[in-house]
Amino acid sequence: MISISDILNENTTEYPLLQKIVAWVLTFIQMFIFLLIILVFHPLHIIFSVFGYKAYMLISHAMMGLVWRSTLLIGTKTRIEGAEILQNLPENVPIIVVSNHQSEYEIACLGYLFSKTPHHLKYIAKKELAYWIPSVSWNIRYGGHGIIDRNQKISALKSIEAFAKKVKENNWAAYIYPEGTRNRYSNEVRPFKTAGFIKLCEILSEAPVVPIAVENFWTVKRIPIEPFATMRVKIFPPLSQKDFSTPEALLQHCENIIRKELTSV
To answer: pLDDT for 221-251, tens place per residue?
Structure first.
């Protein structure tokens, strides 16, 4: 008996029309689920923000977990490698997290994983995302994240500096994806840009740097989606800034090990 996963297997050429139909149906299902989640959680974000940070983050982390795990409904699984590293990070200092970027689903996944640690994950978002998107925009503005205008370099660096100071004050994890934009179509890693990372290192000089490689998270973002994929997160051991001559050298090392991880599979 032929299963849906057999029909969608990339090495199968017997059912091209069925492949397209099933992929498009699952695309609309995934989009509907995502929209439903952010719409339901939007008023909850507003209500729980009244009760302080801890209450607010319960809702925020719950939504992240639900968004991430919703990919199971289209047959997409996630393999986490190195999760134990997060549990062994020092608690009394902030963390810098560096990864490639493919979709909002890896942000939800990592945000949920870090919710189980003392270091809540806070990321830097472009200003266009800070308005009009239910739940997401509210969380960007009120969840401790950084907001930058990518067209204004000087003001963007000032925003990153203010963001880094908040991270330092609360011993959070500052999440930066130095590619600057997401890769929606493959696991290819674009060259890392240095300015934002250098500013983080300037303020968070004691923070260990945790490189993370994310793989196949683009499959749930492209249209139509590629269902029945396996998304993967590879968490590397933390790096000390003191072991590198410059932040640029450290970032280049992060880029190299992430690129190597994703080209060796």
So the answer is: 988 999 899 999 999 999 999 999 999 999 9
Residue whose C-alpha is closest to residue 250's, from 148, 156, 152, 176: 176
The answer, as to whether pTM is greater than 0.85, is yes
- According to the CATH classification, is domain 4-263 in 3.40.1130? yes
Domain boundaries defined on the chain? 4-263
Torsional sign, CA 123, 127, 131, 134? negative
Long-range (24+ apart) CB contacts under 8 A made by 149-153 are 150/126, 150/180, 153/195
Nearest to 44 by CA among 65, 66, 60, 67: 60
Q: What backbone phi and psi angles, to 5 degrees, belong to 89?
A: -70, 145
pLDDT score of 16 more than 90: no
Q: Encoding tokens for residue 236?
A: 């590397």
Place 135 in a pLDDT band, splitting at 50, 70 and 90. very high
